[in-house]
Amino acid sequence: MGSVKAVIFDLDDTLIYSGINYYGVKASVIRFLVEVGVDSNAISENMPNLEIIRAAVKDLRSKGMSEIEIKRVLNHVDSIMDRAEIDSLGNARLREDSLEVLKSLKERGLKIGIITNGCRDYATRVIEMFSLNSYVDVLVARDDVINQKPSPEPLLKALKILGFSAGEIIFVGDHWIDALCAERAGVKFILLQNKRWNFEGLRIRAMAVIEDLRDIVRLL
After folding, report:
1. How far apart are CA 70 and CA 31, in angstroms?
2. In Å, how far from its chain's centre is CA 158?
3. Does residue 10 contact residue 140 with C-beta atoms inside 8 Å?
4. Residue 205 domain-assigned?
5. CA distances (Å), 132 to each of 82, 141, 143, in order?
6. How far apart are the first and last CA of the chain?
């Protein structure tokens, strides 16, 4: 794959073992949205966060809530997620193979990026905590975009910052929303297996499925 100029990684459960209680955070967000008037039948814990937010906004608009009030609701949703992410930092662990792989990719002259649905404060602290600063050329977090993964927006923003085309990068992630983000952006995707998620019945397009990040170096 001589045309590859950069490898973009998801952060949580890809480069690090996340300490975030995803289900707890989603339940808190849904509980708040229902409290402010969103129909409980319009949103569910089976939906990605982006779809929950879109459905909530649509429902609130249909009920006549002003855009100013909707913005306040969304800001509070962000604060719920931000707080949960920051509170989880003490439970985060670096994957055993991450530094070795990042170093190998850098030695090959490749650029490295991270895109995450976590907030920038959280992602920046993770990068600093595990001394990843010298390896990461671009970071795109939740608050850097309007639409988070599975929208292609974070990946396309990273491409623009790096100055590369979709065909010149590979995206590595552990979740189906990463796969869909890559597909929508026209980017090659590598799926890192994660026993936390059940993908049964889902169509995931990946150029490779790996269990160890070091397999990326061998694939390149």
Report:
1. 16
2. 12
3. no
4. yes
5. 21, 16, 20
6. 5
- Asked if 159 contacts 166 with a C-beta cutoff of 8 angstroms, the reply is yes
- Euclidean distance between CA atoms 208 and 68, whole angstroms: 45
The pLDDT tens digits of the residues spanning 43-81 come to 999 898 889 999 999 999 999 999 999 999 999 999 999
Domains in the chain, number? 2
Write down the residue that tokens 């849904």 correspond to.
30
Residue 48 to residue 126: CA distance in whole angstroms: 23
Burial of 99 (0-12, 13-18, 19+ CB in 10 A): middle
Do 205 and 122 lie in one domain? The reply is yes
Task: Residue 193: name the closest of 72, 60, 95 by CA.
Answer: 95
Res. 165: pLDDT tops 80: yes
Q: How far apart are CA 190 and CA 206, in angstroms?
A: 5
Q: For residue 212, tell me if it sits in a domain.
A: yes
CA atoms within 13 A on the CB side of 211: 1
- DSSP class of residue 189 equals E
Query: What CATH number corresponds to the domain at position 108?
Result: 3.40.50.1000
The SS3 of residue 140 is strand
Q: Is the pTM of this model over 0.85?
A: yes
Ramachandran class of 90: left when φ > 0, alpha when ψ lies in -120 to 50, beta otherwise: alpha
Asked if the structure places residue 130 within a domain, the reply is: yes
